[in-house]
Write the structure tokens for this entry.
Amino acid sequence: MTSDNQPRCFSHQSLTEFTEQVFRCSGIPRVDASTAAEVLVTSDLRGIDSHGIARLRPYVNAIRSGRINPKPNIAIIRETPSTAQIDGDRGLGLVVGPRANQVAMEKAAACGSGWVAVKNSNHYGIAGYYPLQALRRDLIGFSMTNSSALVTPHLGAERMLGTNPLAVAFPGAEEPPVVIDMASSIVAYGKIEIAMRENRQIEPGWAIDSEGNATRDPHAVRDGGALLPIGSDRSSGGHKGYCLSSLVDLLSGVLSGANWGPFVPPFILAVTQAGQPVGDGLGHFFGALQIAGFSDVDAFKKRVDQWIRTMRATPPAPGESAVLIPGDPERDAESHRSVHGIPLLPTVAADLEIAADLAGVQFPDPIPQ
């Protein structure tokens, strides 16, 4: 990579302000624009560049084309004391998701647990953002969403499921929280996009081409290929990733009344929708558990600390420096990027400058090097 292609770093504050301005100029109300910007830039801050500000222009395009409703009437259409079904009214997932997650947390605080299924929404950013909010209330948080088809079922040769991520977070006392945030595919599609931007091959076992053959060409994935589920093939346990993806799709799509499987509406150009919809929009599923309903809160947190310290004390495998706890890489990225800025590739920065021109706002200057 030449020096001209090196990323430039931007403060997360400036990117958050910029993102909020773009959303507001696209018709999103101020409070919702602020929430959406926070969710989006949190992804970059935590090192998950595939789901961060690089997605801003597709969001804006979807708003401008009418696919996303900038001022949705987000409504509870069915509920019990501990559950709810919410209609997102085609709203921005970065707005619908936080509202629905709030309902789940409020129900957990009142009843011990809260579970919310959402239909008629759109891409909601990183799954891990939502359980992080639950941690602030001494709750165990859950989040998952289905997504447009990019992944083959186990032993299949055609896109039928999304990358369908899920996230769960557990608070510690003195130790940092355990934050599980993962796609049910072997990698998120954003990793394919990053490989295309950087003009490099993807890893073996990630994907197949349009004819079902293994490929390392990211463009072959875009052009009709598919990602594989966690485990990849039969010998490596690909059925496990398939089962996880199915769970997310059934809770987020089938239970909520949203589209599921190949019928989930596309968010990115590499995806096409199969036939007529079978539900409303894209679906999410949120959960929250009140720790006090199971254990003394402080005692539970201390046991989480003990669990973390036990795992960290595991002798590392040859060539590795230490055993990681779920959430460590994101936490390290956030610590570094909070100080040194968020790196953006020139192609991403150029795309954001186009979004800035369309919205009539100023793209921020990078941090001086």
About this structure: The radius of gyration is 20 Å. The domain at 7-291+322-327+343-358 is CATH 3.30.1370.60 (Ribosomal Protein S8; Chain: A, domain 1). The chain has one domain: 7-291+322-327+343-358.
